[in-house]
Amino acid sequence: MKLLIKLALLMALTSCSAQAEYSDETMYDLASILKDVAQAVDGEIKFGEINNLADDQIIAKAMSSAPDKLAKLNEYQVILEIQGDNAVMLLCDGDVALMEDAGCNTAFDNSYWHQPQHNTCKISLSASSVCTE
Fold first, then answer.
1. Bridge partner residues of 93 (DSSP)
2. Radius of gyration over every alpha carbon of the chain, rounded to an integer in angstroms
3. Residue 31 class from Cβ within 10 Å (0-12 exposed, 13-18 middle, 19+ buried)?
4. Most exposed residue of 28, 51, 58, 101, measured as fewest CB within 10 angstroms of its CB?
5. In this predicted model, what pLDDT tens digit does every residue of 83-130 receive, in sequence order?
């Protein structure tokens, strides 16, 4: 019984510390930037010349008019997945997914920083479910 109480207490403390790791103010600022980047990249995919460019080159090309915005994401991992002619982007802190967005719409799609989980830095958003022509 004592072991169960100790385990429950340890889990509760760990859960609280993981959730408090990311401040809402910082994350909302980053979400705004990621939204801008995702929309710029989506436009570059649809209307630019991206043949033979690596993902980081596509992102840099799309944000060439606002490199300072892109620089604010430097301490994080930015992942781009091109789904058809749509951009889906994910922002991670190590192996923890923080937020995910498709550039094709005006809504911000997914925030994960409130309940950070390890080993989640993988695109899970399907552009076909949020992008309408």
1. 96
2. 17
3. buried
4. 51
5. 999 999 999 999 999 999 999 999 999 999 999 999 999 999 999 999
Closest listed residue to residue 45, CA positions, set 102, 100, 86: 86
The candidate with the shortest Cα–Cα distance to 70, out of 49, 89, 86, 52, is 89
Find, among 107, 99, 91, the residue nearest to 39 by Cα. 107
Nearest one of 53, 29, 125, 51 to 86, comparing CA atoms: 125
Give the Cα separation of 127 and 84 in Å (integer): 8
Torsional sign, CA 60, 34, 120, 25: positive
Looking at residue 106, what DSSP letter applies?
S
